[in-house]
Every structure is written in C-alpha cells, then in structure tokens.
Design a protein that fits this description.
about 30% strand, 13 helices, YbaK protein, binds adenosine-5'-triphosphate, binds magnesium ion, alpha+beta, BirA Bifunctional Protein, domain 2, Rossmann fold
C-alpha cells in the first residue's frame, strides 16, 4: 500500500506570483509550488513535497553507489580544525568556510567537503592491502559560505551532497575505482532523467581523465561549457585545447618593417593598416614566477590568464607593471615582436603554428613588421593553448564549429592521487610486507542541486514537470468539486494506493476546479486523473502532465492503465 496524500491535509501553500528575489526558473517554481521555503540567504527548508523529491534523488544515488560496492557512512558536519590545518585548507578556503568556536575557545568548522576526515577514518580502520580497495560515501549536509547564494537551492550555503572517496594501493586500482564512479554517475543521472554531459575539467597538465565534471545544460547554469553539435565532445572552456597544425609549402615574402606611429594597441594597428585584427600577432607580457615571459596569440583573440596559470601551474602568473620595464631596453611596450626577443621565453598559442605569417611589433617605438613567419623569423619555446575559447572554434575531436552553452555542475569525479595520503601518512602494509602509500579519488554529487537542475530542465510555462522516478507522487487525482466527484476521487485514490501507486489527491473543499487544475500543473506530478463532469457515468479523465494529452476512460480502465 503506497501513500495516499490528501491535499486537504497537506501543508502546502501555492503562490500565483514569483517571489520577488527569485532569478532562476527552479527557484521561482519550487517556491511557488510549495516545495521549499527560504529561511535566509542560501538556507532552505524542504517542505513535504520537496522533501519527497529530495528523498527520491537520494534513493537513486544510494542505490547506484551501493551497486558499485560503496559503503555508506555518516561523518560529522561539525569538525575540528586540525585536519584542515594539516592539509592547508583551513587557510586556503578563506571566506568560504563557516568557522565555529566552542565554549572553550577551540576552533571548529562546518564541513565544506571531507577528504581530510575520510583519510583519517581509513588510516584508523585499514591497515593491510587486504583491507583495500574501499569506497566510502555519505549523503550529508555541507556548509559553504558562498559569495552569491542567489539561485535558490542551486547554490546553497547549506546543501546536500553525496561525497564518496576511494582508497587503492595502486594507480591502476584508482583508475578502476574512478571508472566505477563514472559509470555509476551515468546511471544515476540517466535514472533521474537529467540531460547531462561529461566534461574534462582540467586540461592536459593533469592528465586526460584525472578530473571530469557532470554538467546539466540549463539557462540558469553558472558554468559555461563547450559543446560540439556534431559529435559527443564536451569540455570546460578552460580544458579545450586546439591542436597544433603546421602550415607547409607556403612561400612568404621577406620580413618588412612598417612605420606605424601611435599604434600601441591591436585596434589602432589594424585600423592604421586596414587589416583584420586576426592578421596581427599580439604579444602579451606576463611574469611567471617573477620572470618576464611573452605570450603570443592572434590579435583577435583574448588570453585566458586562468588557463595560462593552470597550464604552467604550480608557477605563479602575474601581469607586468611599469616597473618591470626598468632597465629592459629590449622590451618596447606596445611594439613587442617575437623576432629578436632573445632574452625572453616565448610561449604561443597553437594557432601561431610553424609556417604562419603575421604582422607584429618590430621591437622599436612606432614600428611594426609584416611577413613575420613562425619558424623562419622566430621560434616558439612552448606551445600552450591559452586563448579564451569562442563559439565556432573547431571541435578538437571532429573539427565542427563548437557552441558555448550554460550548464549546472551536478557532479564531479576526481583522481586525487596521494595528496591527502601524504598529508596524513596513510599507508597500508603491502604484499611484500612493506608499507604502501594509498592513492585516493573523490567523487561528489550535488543532491539538493540536482533537484533544482531537474526542475530547470523539465519545467514548462505551466510549472514543474517531474520524471516518474523523482516525482513526489505517481498520480495527482483531482476532484473537480462536487461531493460525488470527491467521493469518486477518493475511491480511485484508495484503489491506486492499494496497488502500490503513490497518489496525491486534491480533495480540498471550497477550492475552485480552475485553481485545482492550475495547482496540479504547477506541482508537476506526471499523471493527472480528474473526476469531473462524467463522474456519474464512472468516467474519469487521464492526462499526461508533460504532453498535455488527455483521454476519457471508465474508472477501471484508468486504474488498469496506471498500474500496468
Ligand atoms: P561550484 O563550482 O558550482 O561552486 P564546486 O566545484 O565547488 O561547485 P565540488 O566541490 O566539486 O563543487 O562539490 C561537489 C558537488 O556539490 C558539485 O558538483 C555540485 O553539484 C555540488 N555543490 C557544490 N557547491 C554547492 C552549493 N553551494 N549548493 C549546492 N550544491 C553544491
Ligand atoms: Mg567542482
């Protein structure tokens, strides 16, 4: 017997108008349909219907984690600072961390994620290679003092996360644990009915699949990702790398200097010469660990300093300042060219390939040079893809023009390696009797965020529209209003309930049929059954919330259809 929830007894207050502070669709609809209620910025109450959806998502996540051998635990959310001090994150997290003091003045925090504490747990519980591999997970409340907790439960300061951690004795073991999670995540998001893409989160530097994000395309998303309309390629904007394609067999005229007064920027230069910015080579000077380095990109492209930093990490990348030019006569600001830049390391984007020809600075004031050919007039020390990716750039996999889309990050899988194991000296006794350092993975899913992502992707102009697996009920039975209609509605609801169907039945007295229908659409249960004008004949109307298709059927047939 599944639950039959009578709306006359359900604590629900639907709203006709969007809350004033709501910016995203999911925020508006989840509040209006009575699923959640805001307590403070980024802090939410899950009301009865919302709690059901959250539970359904949690159940799917738990089932799929159990299926890969994950063991569920529950760690505290209130944590001592020491392990986070040991890992350096007590400081690194800065303002994101909720810090708490106890009565004795001791420092604590509300856990934002739990790598440290899981590492300690395994150090305490596992001593031999025979105890590994282990996958542990929890579904728990996390705390992050987000700078902009604006989008409802999409970005909370208190939120539900499933965080899992794998512990292995070898790199191959870690790769296997990672693959298991990747598979489980796909099963989870498919079952939830989410449209998602798997994106490599970091570029080359850390190795291909060391980290991937699961993104749910949605207008409300705060992440931009690169999506290929022709193949299955998808990646974070920072992770897209353009292949180096040397241009061969072209005969370039000799390098020629041009008098170009007052043209220190690409715009002024392009205008003066009447050429497109893409014909020019822009050379940005930056400091890498204090040393001046030139970075060459086509004049019409922007340099992504974050991407550059990521590629050169752990080096620190900074912009140059006027003082850096003191005593550097070789660097003519605004007129830098890679030819004859002997004392400076030259990094270039792969678009500046061997055999390409450019207009660029001549390293003299008010002078540029044309026919400056890569490989003939200058050499590139290192190729690093550092430009901001743009719509229409070629897909690294199939070459088609890519699109830039917005998405919500719903999950993240990450091969951590031995970082935390080193911090906490997590070793187990190996086969040969010697200690072996453990290697770890960490895997997160935003459980409460997934509810908002589902709402974003499935809602229409009438309201929410849940997939069966996550919906707060299977069927929404509406009694149009008269006593006989309510009687039939309750009777049908009981029969469905007895057959294991989860039912929400709108038996409210004194509420007009119009309001009930509008509420049913707003609440978004997949199937709506109406006891309306043909109640006396024992005929009800069955409606598909998603397609709007409706059909009149005798009660018994309607029940048979639903329970089939
Ligand atoms: P974001 O870039 O959106 O801040 P993150 O990279 O900080 O996310 P992780 O540390 O990888 O997130 O956390 C794992 C998962 O937890 C994320 O993939 C996301 O789904 C979820 N999550 C992270 N922050 C929040 C939040 N403030 N509210 C709700 N869910 C969150
Ligand atoms: Mg992340």
């Amino acid at each position: 017997m599944a639950q039959v929830q009578r709306m006359s007894r359900l604590m629900i207050k639907t709203l006709r108008d969007d809350p004033a502070d709501a910016e995203t669709l999911s925020h508006k609809l989840l509040v209006r349909a009575g699923y959640v209620r805001r307590n403070a910025a980024g802090i939410w109450t899950w009301l009865p219907l919302g709690k059901k959806v959250l539970e359904n998502v949690t159940r799917v996540v738990r089932e799929e984690m159990d299926a890969i051998g994950g063991q569920e635990v529950l760690l505290p959310a209130l944590l001592p600072k020491e392990p986070y001090e040991a890992s350096g994150r007590w400081d690194e997290y800065g303002d994101l961390l909720f810090r708490v003091k106890d009565r004795k003045g001791g420092d604590y925090l509300l856990g934002p994620t739990h790598e440290e504490v899981f590492t300690q747990t395994v150090k305490d519980q596992c001593t031999s290679y025979k105890d590994l591999p282990v996958i542990l997970y929890q579904i728990q409340t996390k705390y992050r003092d987000e700078a902009r907790p604006r989008s409802g439960v999409l970005r909370g300061r208190e939120f539900q996360m499933k965080d899992a951690y794998s512990f292995d004795t070898s790199d191959e073991g870690l790769a296997e644990s990672y693959a298991l999670h990747r598979e489980a995540y796909q099963n989870i998001f498919r079952r939830l009915g989410l449209d998602f893409r798997i994106c490599s989160a970091v570029s080359g530097a850390m190795g291909g699949s060391a980290s991937e994000e699961f993104l749910a395309p949605a207008a409300a998303g705060e992440d931009t990702f690169v999506d290929c309309p022709e193949c299955d390629y998808a990646a974070n904007t920072e992770a897209v790398t353009f292949a180096l394609q040397p241009v061969e067999g072209q005969d370039h005229p000799a390098l020629e200097e041009l008098d170009t007064p007052d043209t220190p920027t690409i715009e002024t230069l392009a205008e003066h010469l009447g050429v497109p910015a893409s014909a020019t080579l822009k050379n940005l000077l930056v400091k890498v660990d204090g040393e001046i380095v030139a970075v060459g990109v086509p004049g019409d492209r922007e340099v992504d300093l974050g991407k550059l930093g990521e590629q050169l990490s752990p080096a620190v990348v900074e912009l140059v300042t006027a003082e850096d030019f003191e005593g550097r006569d070789d660097l003519v600001r605004g007129y830098v060219g890679p030819q004859g830049l002997e004392k400076v390391r030259y990094i270039a984007d792969p678009r500046v390939a061997p055999g390409t020809s450019w207009i660029t600075g001549a390293n003299k004031p008010d002078t540029h040079a044309k026919n400056v050919v890569c490989g003939r007039d200058f050499e590139v020390d290192d190729y690093v893809d550092v430009v901001v990716v743009e719509e229409g750039d070629p897909c690294p996999k199939c070459g088609a023009g890519v699109k830039l889309d917005r998405a919500i990050e719903i999950g993240h899988i990450f091969q951590l390696g031995r970082k935390y194991a080193d911090t906490f000296q997590l070793d187990v006794l190996g086969k040969e009797g010697k200690p072996v350092r453990v290697t770890m993975g960490s895997y997160g899913i935003g459980v409460s965020r997934a509810v908002a992502a589902l709402a974003e992707q499935s809602a229409d102009d009438k309201g929410l529209c849940w997939a069966p697996e996550v919906a707060p009920a299977d069927v929404h039975v509406v009694a149009a209003g008269k006593a006989a209609q309510t009687e039939l509605a309750l009777e049908v609801a009981e029969k469905l309930g007895a057959a294991g169907v989860r039912v929400l039945v709108d038996d409210r007295a004194g509420v007009s049929p119009g309001v009930k229908f509008t509420d049913a659409e707003l609440i978004g249960v997949p199937t709506v059954l109406v006891a309306g004008r043909r109640t006396a004949e024992g005929v009800v109307e069955l409606k598909d919330r998603r397609t709007g298709e409706r059909e009149e059927l005798p009660v018994a047939e309607a029940i048979a259809r639903i329970t089939a």
